[in-house]
Amino acid sequence: MSILVLPGDGIGPEVTAQAVKALRSVAANGPQFEMAEAAIGDAGLHQAGDPLPEATLEAARRADAILFGAAGTYESDLLPPEKRGGHGLLRLRKALDLFANFRPVYAFPELIGASTLRREVIEGVDLVVLRELTGDIYFGTPRGVERDASGQRIGTNTMRYTEGEIRRVAHAGFRAARQRRHKLCSVDKANVLETMALWREVVTEVGRDYPDVELTHLYVDAASMHLIRRPRDFDVIVTGNIFGDILSDAAAMLTGSIGMLPSASLGEGGRGLYEPVHGSAPDIAGQDKANPLASILSAAMMLRHSLGQEEAARAVEAAVREVLAEGYRTPDIMEPGARSVGTEAMGDAVAAAIQRQRR
Ligand code: NAD
Ligand code: IPM
Ligand code: MN
């Protein structure tokens, strides 16, 4: 089994190193992995003149699974698109046609006190945001900045979905709901946008194939409210690229920290890209402060969805539970009386707990 590791920028390399540690701990008495590393993001631009170097894309096509850290910095976000670190990631997702991005939002009982929200609201939260990842305003054309006749600059992006793109992610949503609590909530803006009216129509059509799944619809503005007010009512949420990006960062706070949210980006085949939901966090990069659990939990999703190692995936997840129960906390989830640790020490604790789990 071959894993391509793409550390990227900022805290990307710091958290990814801990996920690699966890995978090595799994491999110590189990499945063997071949791990290779390649450059992406600002690191790709510096090393090879491109945020998605050709060699990286080729290696990604050959790998069984890809573990990604974070790409981009505030500086490169200001460069032309082809030089922005984050665009390397967008191109990778598109090139591999990884249209279904699963972002599980699980409130660990051990972390209820770490959230800014009240215990009775978040206790028992267990939902998945399924974000469409290769369409929408992220990729629609026309796009760009141009000048009109008077010389004024005009910025354009286009929200666009084909019914085929909506249908395949809707099927993925219904299938995911079937493996969980049989509830799918589709989030759109069908009252204003034609694209989103089509979204609702197609999701409803697909729903006829899944009579055992309860389908509901929400507008994205109301959804953002309900998500914070009554998060336990949600099972699977399926939504477009931009709404999913925004809703999942908000949903992260139900778990206590954006540093707790893993994700899997999947296509039609078995190959997947596994990435924490957070970014490169320039404000804490290089300080051994980043929470590596989102990256480690992404590695667990990789074991499950691309490498066929369900038992190992569970061992990694149980190890995370164990270190949280033992009181290990990075600063973002720190609570009074807990054991304050850095990125490395958290990674070491999880790796050791995996050894105990697998014994
Ligand atoms: P961010 O997710 O990097 O950071 C937001 C806040 O959350 C910061 O205060 C940060 O310190 C904190 N945070 C994030 N991850 C954390 C972790 N693991 N542990 C503890 N705290 C954590 O978002 P941003 O500040 O909007 O973006 C920073 C850069 O990252 C930008 O250049 C952006 O384009 C890029 N970005 C990349 C990705 C990605 O590669 N998937 C995702 C989002 C943003
Ligand atoms: C994410 C990020 C990316 C996105 C950026 C870095 C391009 O915010 O993975 O959530 O918007 O998809
Ligand atoms: Mn995002």
Question: What does this 3D model show about the protein?
Answer:
It comes from Belnapia mucosa. Substrate binds at residues 93, 103, 131, 221. The chain is an alpha/beta fold and 359 residues long. It has two domains: 1-107 and 258-359, 3-Layer(aba) Sandwich (Isopropylmalate Dehydrogenase), CATH 3.40.718; 126-253, Isopropylmalate Dehydrogenase. Helix content is 40%, strand content 18%. The chain is built from twelve helices and 14 strands. The strands form three sheets. It has a ten-stranded mixed β-sheet with strand order 2-1-3-12-11-4-5-10-8-9, with helices on both faces. β1 (2-8), α1 (12-27) and β2 form a beta-alpha-beta unit. The longest helix is centred in the N-terminal third of the chain and has 16 residues, at 12-27. The radius of gyration is 20 Å and the shape is globular. The mean pLDDT is 97. 3-isopropylmalic acid (IPM) is lined by residues 72, 86, 89-90, 245, 277, 279.
Summarize the structure.
The protein is an alpha/beta fold.
Number of domains: 2
What about the largest sheet? 10 strands, mixed
Helix coverage percent = 25-40%
Rg, please? Answer: 20 Å
CATH architecture of the largest domain: 3-Layer(aba) Sandwich
Number of extended strands: 14
Strand order of the largest sheet: 2-1-3-12-11-4-5-10-8-9
CATH topology of the largest domain: Isopropylmalate Dehydrogenase
Quaternary structure = single chain
CATH homologous superfamily label of the largest domain = Isopropylmalate Dehydrogenase
By CATH reckoning, the class of the largest domain would read: Alpha Beta
The poorly predicted ranges are none
Termini separation comes to 22 Å
User: Strand content of the residues, in percent?
Assistant: 15-25%
Specify the number of helices.
Answer: 12
